[in-house]
Amino acid sequence: MTQTATSHLVQKAERLRALHHGDRLLLLPNIWDPGGARMLESLGYPAVATASAAVAYSLGYDDGQQITLDAMLDVVGRVAASVNVPVTADMEAGYAQLPRDVAENMRRVLRAGAVGINLEDSSREGEVLFDVGFQCERIQAVREMAQEEGVPLVINARTDVYLPRVTMAENERFDQALQRAKAYLEAGADCFYPIMLGDLETLKKLYEAIRAPINVFAPTCRATLRELEDVGIARLSLGLGLMRASLTRMRKIAVELQNYGSFDSFTRDMITNDEIRAYLSKEPMQ
């Protein structure tokens, strides 16, 4: 990368990291295209996150690293180039297993313009949890790569211990999550993401034990945004939420038309072409 390109990425990475340590909860309604990224930026969101499942679905792939790395990187690069705010990309389990291979894949993500990543600790959505030490090696390899690139990449280390398909006694999940949180942060992660954990008291207990940024998955959270903020949670993401809402609306319209219903009921609060163009009109600074 050129010195100018690296400088821009450094500034964005530092901004993204700072958003994890502010007084306000970092809200990330994950998107899958440049248009959605531009809309969120225009609405005042200070950062944009992609959702791996949404990107995959939009291109006709299933979730779980079924999309090719090249196809995912193409979307991530287009999203990052479309906005001035920092972009963090959901890169699933890194599209590889060995630490050096994950690091090289994440180098490509960084060079595509994203300054943050999600990195999971299991294969195929909790099918097999990686050993704690092995996942730490993967995180450390990514951190060392970022240092080589001269960019403080923000690593959101996701654990899948709370996924239903992970075979583990319920009373063991918290201890396992806490062990992984401490280890991943020590290995170079910036934020810990115990996906599916939504109980406020448990989240509070976890935060008090690690005193580091925690990412909460909104669809399974049983607390208000204010409550999360009050107990020290740093970040909340929607995952596939926005795409599911969009597809729900799309299906409802399609079924209504198929049954010879009226299209008028769907146009009353519909976004206008002028509003869409307004979101797209501001050129990003590259």
Supply database-style keywords.
286 residues; five-stranded parallel β-sheet; three-stranded parallel β-sheet; 49% helix; globular
Would you kindly provide a written description of the structure presented here, covering whatever features stand out?
This protein is an alpha/beta fold and 286 residues long. The chain has a single domain, classed as Phosphoenolpyruvate-binding domains (TIM Barrel, Alpha-Beta Barrel), CATH 3.20.20.60. It contains eleven helices and ten strands. Strands 2-3-4-7-8 form a five-stranded parallel sheet. The chain is globular. The mean pLDDT is 94.
CATH topology: TIM Barrel
**Could you state the order of secondary-structure elements as H and E?**
HEHEHHEHEEEHEHEHEHEHH
From the helix content, strand content and strand pairing, which structural class follows?
alpha/beta
Strand content: 5-15%
Note the total helix count.
Answer: 11
- Which regions have little confidence, pLDDT < 50, spanning 5+ residues? none
Tally of extended strands? 10
Strand order of the largest sheet: 2-3-4-7-8
CATH class: Alpha Beta
- What's the shape? globular
